[in-house]
Amino acid sequence: MNEKKLVRKGKIGSGEAHSKIILIGEHSVVYGYPAIAIPLKDILVKCRIMEAKSKYFYNPEDTLSTAIYTALKYLKKENAKIKYLIESEIPTKRGMGSSAAVSIAAIRAVFDYFGKNLDDKILEKMVQEAETVAHMNPSGLDAKTCLSDKALKFIKNKGFSYIDLNLGAYLVVADTGVHGNTREAVENVREMGDKAQPMLKNLGELTEKMEIAIREKSLEKIGEIMNQANLELKKLNLTIEKSDILVEEALKNSALGAKISGGGLGGCIIALVENEEKARIIGEKLSSKGAANIWIERI
User: Fold this and answer.
1) Fewest CB within 10 angstroms: 81, 167, 171, 261, which?
2) Is residue 269's pLDDT more than 50?
3) Are residues 287 and 155 in the same domain?
4) Tens digits of per-residue pLDDT, 148-159?
5) Own/partner pairs for 274-281, CB < 8 Å, 24+ apart?
6) Which of 136, 161, 186 is the last residue before a domain boundary?
7) Digit-coded pLDDT (tens) for 191-210
8) What's the pLDDT tens digit per position in 104-127?
9) Of the residues 98, 128, 161, the one at which a domain ends
10) Which CATH number fits the domain that encloses residue 241?
């Protein structure tokens, strides 16, 4: 449908949000160790809310539907006749915060449609309600990072702190094209029992070292820590052949470091690169090795 026609027909509410990626600490974060997440500010999802002929249909088992209904309920507009349109650059089930970003964009669009101001704390609370549908017991890391312009350090049951990156480097994010399965991956690690503990402890220590390396702006150290983290994640059986191929290809083409990101068993790999030219070269190489999508983000 043509947007100009929509504008003539009635008002439109708009909202958007950005993606995120885990730099380090996936899985070990479940066991009380820290994790560091980075906002991907150039990878966006946009939502438009428009007038409809019938009342909005609420599906309590759907994250997006829950986000919109939560916003309507807060505004006491549960009977509003609206519909939505989503345009997203964020693939689902890749560890990039798709459900959180969609919820943020949709809630912002609902408030914009009704001309209401939206407080960030209220927004975050609403997103958490929607995220509970998607992830049962979400940590809040996805929502927090998709709402933030800064990197975040998160420790379970302790909370968040902001990290100032400004590394002057680039992160290449490559999609394996395979849906990650966080629940299965978490369960697999849990079933390893004591055998998993050394790897989880090492990942926790590497995350602490990563925070120091970021503070020192040492790209070489950051890259090396990424490589070490990937080895620990591989020992936990969280990599797949496709992600191994992409990590190897990135390192072969001068990436400072590369690793899987997120739950594993699919999803994305990330590679740290010192400049944009090298980032584009590595992106092309990873595409030639079968990466489904490539994004390059300045960090």
Assistant:
1) 81
2) yes
3) no
4) 999 999 998 899
5) 274/169, 274/170, 274/219, 275/169, 275/170, 276/170, 278/170, 278/253, 278/254, 279/170, 279/171, 279/172, 281/253
6) 161
7) 999 999 999 999 999 999 99
8) 999 999 999 999 999 999 999 999
9) 161
10) 3.30.70.890
